Amino acid sequence: MDMYIAHRNVFTGAKQTVKEHCENTAALCREYAVPELKEIAFAAGLLHDVGKYQYSFQERINGTNIRVEHSTCGALAARENYSLAVLALMLEYCIAGHHSGIPDGGFPNDEESPTLYGRMHKTFEDFEAYKKELALPHLDERAFLSYILSDCNNEIGKVIDKFTFLTRYVFSCLVDADSTDTAEFCREGELPRQLKADFAACLERVNRKLESFVCETKLQKARSALQNQAFLRSHEDAEIYLMNMPTGSGKTLASIKIALERALLKEKKRIIYIIPFNSVIEQTAEVFEKLFEEDVEILRHQSTFSYEDEENGSEDYRKAAKSAVENWDAPLIITTAVQFFESVYSNKRGKLRKMHNMSDSILIFDEAHLMPQNYLQPCLQAVAYITRYLHSEAVFLTATMPDYEKLMRTYALADLQMISLISDKSMFETFRKCRYTAIGEVDIKELLSRSRSYPSSLIIVNRKADARALYQACGGQKYHLSTYMTAYDRQRVLREIRQTLALLEKDYPGGEGVPDERKVTIISTSLIEAGVDLDTYTVFRERTGLDSILQAGGRCNREGKRSIGDVFIFDFSENEKRQAVDERANLTRGLLEKYEDISDIQCIEEYYNRLLYMNREAIQKNTMHQQCLEIDSIPFKSYAEKFSLIDSETVSLVVPRDARSEKLVELLKFTHSGNSRALQSYTCTLYQRELEDLIRQHAADDYGTGIFCLTNSDYYDENTGILFEAPDYFIS
Prior knowledge:
Layout: E1 5-8, E2 15-17, H1 18-32, H2 38-47, H3 55-61, H4 71-81, H5 85-96, H6 116-120, H7 130-133, H8 141-149, H9 156-186, H10 199-212, H11 218-233, E3 240-244, H12 251-265, E4 270-275, H13 278-292, E5 298-301, H14 315-327, E6 332-336, H15 337-344, H16 349-352, E7 361-366, H17 376-389, E8 393-398, H18 404-411, E9 418-420, E10 434-442, H19 444-451, E11 456-460, H20 464-473, E12 477-481, H21 487-507, E13 520-524, E14 538-542, H22 546-553, E15 565-572, H23 583-594, H24 601-614, H25 616-620, H26 636-642, E16 650-654, H27 659-671, H28 676-679, E17 683-687, H29 688-696, E18 700-701, E19 709-710, E20 716-717, E21 721-722
Parallel strand pairs: 3-8, 3-9, 4-6, 4-7, 5-6, 7-8, 10-15, 11-13, 11-14, 12-13, 14-15
Antiparallel strand pairs: 1-2, 16-17, 18-19, 20-21
Helix pairs in contact: 1-2, 1-9, 2-5, 2-9, 4-5, 5-9, 9-17, 10-12, 23-24
């Protein structure tokens, strides 16, 4: 055959040969990869499409309607050309999975199976023509083996975890290079431009902002001193920086200054700001957009946000952002911990494509204490490996810091370079804006009565059903927040709360003489605790983990306008208890008895030490090396399908809330396809059994799509969310 074709451009009729595509992809792979993996990434790029040299594939490209597998051919070629098993295996996993996702390794006796072993047993047409057209690189097998084994102390578990991470990374380089070259050749018109940033100009803006702050009061001076302490220590080189600063000390602004300084000093490509919850991203994005203005184009990547629906910015910007979401080729990214970690531990082309752009970056983990316990070791490993092997740096940011230095050394890499940016914590007491008092058991009536004695109060409970019951029993100006409500309604309610509290502060600045009808009661589940910017006179928090209680305290007297605020910790009375008290709440009970002030640093340290010791098995159980014994049997696909930082017992239900969402649901109903990302803002969260109950009542349907929608609006209340029984109607 004179010419082997990889792609046709349907717009121009141009043809790209397999040789051209493989060489282009290999060159991009090498460009994307860190120095230690450039040559193996180059080899992956060269070999990934050699299966297109098969006669049947050329028939297909010329119009014959047949299906031809080509990915496994490159894996077979890798095994033939490279004798070191660990090196060949990395190439095999990456190349075999470059369309469908990295497969499970499987076992030697797998036949007719989608595992790597099963696929490597298949017979293919002759594709040997690649040997005449492609010059494979010589790979230093001894150096590669040494690189894989370093930091592993001859422990097979550590080798498996590291090998798995690096395989996903090489796969990321490969699939992004493949996608980029294919898009470039097959495009119609110009490709979207890249998002841009001027980090030096951004840093100047941050410095001017910091210099503009008045520094007269004791608290203002303490804030400045703490920030300067962090800035000074951040000039030292490390892989991970720990930034433990109290609420109100300006962590967000300080962290972005440090990130910008480190990025400029070490010539890093991007800053990735990782936030635990969707609800906080909008708040952070608004702060950065207002601060940086035209000096940076921010990329937001979260499940509840779609650039297709974004009204701000030009069409040119939206196109660039939509493209950058695919591979995170952007200078400043704000995303969620779920997006970040589930991308690292995916096996799919779409998610892993962005992983290689986590290299040469500054990672900021806001509210770092919220890393999920059941996936703590994989999360810590991901951060350690990205900093060590992908040459990035990370900043852990929180007011309640676990002993991450010990955790990192125990569960990730023992010799990580780590610096605590705040060594002198004597000023923490200055930021104490509330006192924590345990009031024991109360019933709903007593709890609401207590709350009504304050101008504004926030009551946080552990269960959505309890939040609803309290709201229904409460009188006066009241608000309710829980994940039974859609994100659309939660954001609306938060806006209303902020407006109401601002007006209350304006009319009654000292909180004196507030009439009953103006007093505000907010009833919520824990969703309000992490970073939601609210300031109430008093907080009532049902007993739970100490970290959650202290986060709740961050919503009390947040601005420090009063000398002290009160956070009351309560239990529901015996006849109103709905659930068993968990281990976190039991730990808190003991600490409340032991410490006069549970916000004391020693109390926080004891809480985390005891909690993490009690759960050491859970911390490790979901690490990859717990799932397999050999690198040729790694369950990439099975592991990725089970890896979920969100409670797997819960499901989402779409609730149409406006004309746009109604149109999207109609599209879903009649075409059996739709934009699930565009619907995220209109979803509420239920347990599976609750959804099944709605289905039995013919109040929910997925129209054959797997995306369940509420079909009867009587089952939703804009103030309390999803209902499980429709209101009664009386016809006279």
